[in-house]
Amino acid sequence: MQRYIAGRLIQCLVTLLVISLLVFALARLTGNPLDVMLPIDASAEIQEEMSRELGLDQPVYVQYARFVQSLLHGDLGTSIRTRKPVAELIGLRLPNTLKLVSFSTGMALLIALPLGVIAATRKSGFWDVAARTVALFGQSVPTFWAGIVLITIFAVNLDILPAGRKEGIESYVLPAVTLGLFGFMLAGVVRLLRGSMLDVLDSEYVKFARMKGLAESVVTWKHALKNALIPVVTFVGFYFGILMAGSVVVETVFAWPGIGRLAFEAVQWRDYPVIQGVVLLVSTIILAANLVVDILYAYIDPRIRYG
Question: The pTM is what?
Answer without folding.
Answer: 0.80
